[in-house]
Amino acid sequence: MKKSEFEQWSARATKWSTEYIGSLNDKPVRAQCQPGDIAKLIDVSPPETGESMDSIMDDFEDIIPDGMTNWQHPRFFAYFQSNSAPASMIAEQLATTLAAQCMLWQTSPAATELETCMVDWLRQAVGLPGEFKGVLQDTASSATLAAILTMRERALNWEGNQKGLSGQPRIRIYASSRTHSSIDKAMWIAGLGQDNLVKISTDEQFALKEDELRKAIADDRAAGYLPAGIVVCVGGTSMGATDRVGEVCAIAQEENLYTHVDAAWAGSAMICDELRPMWQGVEAADSLVLNPHKWLGASMECSAHFIKDPETLVKTLAIQPEYLKTHGKDGLVNYSEWGIQLGRRFRALKLWFLMRAYGLDGLRSRIRNHIAWSEKLCKRLRAEPDFQIVTDPILSLFTFRYAPGSSAQSELDELNLRLVNALNDDGRIYLTQSEHEGMRVIRFVTGQFDMEERDVDIAFDAILEIARKL
Q: What whole-number distance in Å separates Cα of residue 270 and Cα of residue 290?
């Protein structure tokens, strides 16, 4: 394609995007294809000579959309939403045009300085104190890995990167049994090992048991292990489990441990003042992560990693060969030193567009609506004699199961898996299953940026209709 044709094909892509967004209501939410269906439509080998953009765009339109799950669909109630508000999409187009590699201040001064400003806008929006600084990582998994590495280096007096872990005491990290699997994976990648992630059981409120945490730390010290940090859960993926943040952080301070709060989903809701008791005491944490690309409307990837003392993070992750140094400029921030990646995208631009286009009040209204609509559906399902609410709504997430008659649990587990699959094959809504207290449950979570109350009503009708056909 010639540069002179860019406007023509950009206009066609924009037209297709507009039509796609406008027709989402009429599409099935989950891709209705089987493994291999798309691959068999793709040429086995790459072309030796360039093809026309007409041909490429035609193939895109004919092959790709039908093989995509529609994450921006208003009835996407699975996983956690990965939103992309229209204003964020425009910013992404512009960022792609600039095509900047934003690893250092000198490689993209505006990107670096806008990132500093946007992270501070988010800090103010969710009510964190001014001592927190931050960086935009790609995902919460990367932020959590950075936090685990910081815990490791801090515990080893910053010698792990240089000397390795051989001969060092076995480092222990603590977390609720309901934390996300990204914490487990971070332990693998950090070289600490799965066995050194100590899972603490939860109480009837699904919060980590502080007495058990204290005992685990004391027992590990007595056994010669080296406790290093605690990952605190706020809004766990399965059913929204949340630890008592302030109490866990108080224990960490007593034990000189580093605390990282995983609020990847729930953290965005803290733009609403009335929801902040959920993470009461968060100001005592050393770091935390929340994902604007989940509930605030920023398109992937956009994960805000807040750190009380950035020097600990930079000391863990910064590496400065001569070719990455900026000479003659003092006081610069180079955000590649704050994360795993050296190469970095211009993520801050979409936050700037997003928060200006909708305002905090507009974003708060969406979150409040999502919570209210989820609570409404929960209440309606609770009133049905053959449905059980397993866990009540935590923000906009609850779990339920279809339980007609007096079937054994194994039979109900199988029935609910069949229900999830049937609902997703039907296409009107998209749900996912989970496990809670040894039983299979169905998760329901609202949060798609432009959904309406009627989408929840459609979900209720679909759930009842399909369940009673099984």
A: 10
Identify the DSSP state of 189: H
* pLDDT in the model for residue 330: 55
Q: Report residue 253 as tokens.
A: 């301070």
Other C-beta atoms closer than 10 Å to the C-beta of 234 total 26
Distances in Å between the Cα of 140 and the Cα atoms of 88, 265, 339 are: 19, 9, 11
- The H or E element spanning position 118 is helix 109-126
Residues 6+ apart with CB under 8 A from 161: 153, 316
The dihedral of CA 173, 179, 182, 185: what is its sign? Answer: positive
Distances (CA, A) of 240 to 172, 192, 198, 395, 415: 25, 27, 20, 8, 24
Cβ-contact 279, 254 below 8 angstroms: no
Cα–Cα distances in angstroms (integers) from residue 31 to residues 28, 226, 245, 316, in the given order: 7, 47, 39, 42
Torsion of CA 389, 391, 394, 395, to 10 degrees: -30
pTM for the model stands at 0.92
Task: Sketch the domain layout of the chain as residue ranges.
Answer: 101-345
Residues of the chain with pLDDT under 70: 320-331
pLDDT in the model for residue 107: 83
Distances (CA, A) of 462 to 64, 298, 433, 449, 455: 27, 29, 16, 21, 11
User: By three-state DSSP, how is residue 288 classified?
Assistant: strand
pLDDT value at residue 332: 80
Name the CATH topology of 101-345: Aspartate Aminotransferase; domain 2 (3.40.640)
8 A C-beta contact, residue 293 and residue 302 = yes
> b/e map of 421-432 (b: 16 or more CB within 10 Å)?
eebbebbbbbbb
- The pLDDT score that the predictor gives to residue 327 is 42
Whole-Å CA distances, 443 to 301, 390, 465, 469 = 24, 10, 18, 20
